[in-house]
Amino acid sequence: MELDQRKVVILTTIIKNYLETGEPVGSRTISKYSGLNLSSATIRNEMSDLEEMGYIVQPHTSAGRIPSDKGYRFYVDQLMENHKHEIDDVKTEMFEKVDRLETTLKTLVRNLAENTKYAAVVTGPSIRTNKIKFIQTSLVDARRLLLVVMMQGNIVKTSSVVLDGAEELDFNRVLSINMLLNDVLNGLSVEDITEGRIGQLLARTSYKGTVKTIVDSILNMLDINLGESQIYTSGATNIFKYPELVDSDNASKLISAFETKDELASLVKESQEQADGKKPIQVYIGEESPLQNMSDCSVITANYELGNGLKGTIGVIGPKRMDYEKVLEILSKLQSEMDQAFQ
Amino acid sequence: MELDQRKVVILTTIIKNYLETGEPVGSRTISKYSGLNLSSATIRNEMSDLEEMGYIVQPHTSAGRIPSDKGYRFYVDQLMENHKHEIDDVKTEMFEKVDRLETTLKTLVRNLAENTKYAAVVTGPSIRTNKIKFIQTSLVDARRLLLVVMMQGNIVKTSSVVLDGAEELDFNRVLSINMLLNDVLNGLSVEDITEGRIGQLLARTSYKGTVKTIVDSILNMLDINLGESQIYTSGATNIFKYPELVDSDNASKLISAFETKDELASLVKESQEQADGKKPIQVYIGEESPLQNMSDCSVITANYELGNGLKGTIGVIGPKRMDYEKVLEILSKLQSEMDQAFQ
DNA sequence: GTTAGCACTCAAAATATTGGAGTGCTAACA
DNA sequence: TGTTAGCACTCCAATATTTTGAGTGCTAAC
Fold first, then answer.
1. Could you tell me if A59 and A42 are in contact, meaning their C-beta atoms sit under 8 angstroms apart?
2. How many CB pairs under 8 A join A and B?
3. Helices (H), B191-261
4. If you placed Cys at B136, which of A236, A248, B78, B148 could pair as Cys (CB 3.0 to 4.6 Å)?
């Protein structure tokens, strides 16, 4: 059987109607709202075909139809097609005061959740590929250094380094260590800090123990921060607005996922792999979702890339009947704005 | 009417049983488990009295009784009485590696939620009263300084300061500004940084614009951090374990409160005011709770005070039928350990 | 190819039935 | 005077039954 023009109109009408109401859609409704001027009986025939083709399903005999995952997929693909060129140049005030990336992302994720009424997640750029911009250590007391590392995007990480005290430090010595560290490590990412580099560092100082401890501390700090703290979330409670999620226990699973954040991390990873394959925006419908046991949810992710090569992900998680059109529009707008907001 | 010994035993049995099962308790059950060797009929008479006195209520005629808020209150007060001296000297490994207070608190709150199976909240010491230990500014580029402030408890705050460029800075000038800042501001809390102090600072430098900007930035940074970021939470999803909270929509309210954190801030404030009046542990039952519209929840808070005068709050939020005994024990243990863990 | 008409289906809502846990009261008992 | 057995009564909760109505598929006519 073929999906002709009329079937497409009917399918689209069913889906749009279902997205709005959340109720199964019957033939009479379509007959009235499709604009096709067909009687409900004719629509019934077509719906019967659409069901056979797998685009819609009946929750039970004598109920209206709801879109199947395949139906949603068709609808979303169509949307993506039409919206490809629609990235408009409306500028929001969001990035007016870009100073520190972290602050920006926190605001971003909150706004996103508020605008969409779904749950939102945003990740900062992966620290592994982010480059060191500036290192500073300072003597807090005899045995302790405060280590401050600033990365691109003005992300600042701090850590305190406890020394064994074998090498006595004073202000000037710390100064020279700082100069050395900046000289060798600036512009490098964690991955670039190889054994060789470290050797090179140690060769140029007589405070080998101290410098070694500091470098270990830097690596350790950036490794730890690879994980959760880079994931910002908001609006998890929006999920309670959607009864179908509350009834199945998808809601509580989602809230859990938002609390522990591990699963979100794998979602982001999956999304970024897709993005590398040149798909900047992904839509995961129901079972397709990388989140475990959340067949009633859909996930939309967008990957952004800043001018300096830093990459991150923005995502929205909602019920399967989410407003794909709106979310896609918002995400693609954000995506392009992120690019522009940082040089 | 008087609450004699027998009534107390019956009331306690009712409460304990209800805490375990969550089901209304009938006279036959008490007759079997109270250890009093009384028939259910006698118990019924006593229960009738207890109801009249307001310690227990019947959800409906011909159901067992459940404790009223007054009943819980009596039970908890009794517990507090008995446990006063029970702060034992068992040491957990929790504070083995105390380096930075923030890390410790994050671990603490997670453990607390896991052990109790309720929602947990922990605040770091109020920054307003916390004292500055160390200030460092460094030139990132021509127009931007990185400002790092370390407070007592090794809490580090950073911020970037954008200069207007009117005063040209170089490495040595920044150095002298650092020395001045540390000289004047170290040991002060935000509250201590008065107009007078600022004047004093400015009088001693020729880079008045820069120093003023930095000080403003410090004040601003610490003011912002007064709020949410000092509140750590965990285990909000534990709430889903308690059907009575899920059914009333107390669960979703709680999750919301844990997401936005404003309400938790006022909870902490309330608790600390109580603590100043010499009540180190508070129990809020049902309506008594400072949280809005959470009549089915109880809140237990403990205030800790570190050796250096820093104060914070630890709290557990759960259903009204939470295991008060266990939670009180854990909190009082933590409280005393916190004191010992920091010098 | 389209449509009106009709019998049929089935979930959800409304209503009825039943079972059982629990109570209060009374009268008898120690 | 306090305790207890016995009994009628209440009422929630679980289960069964009925009713309702939206929606379908099929058929025959246009």
1. no
2. 67
3. 195-203, 208-224, 243-247, 250-260
4. B148
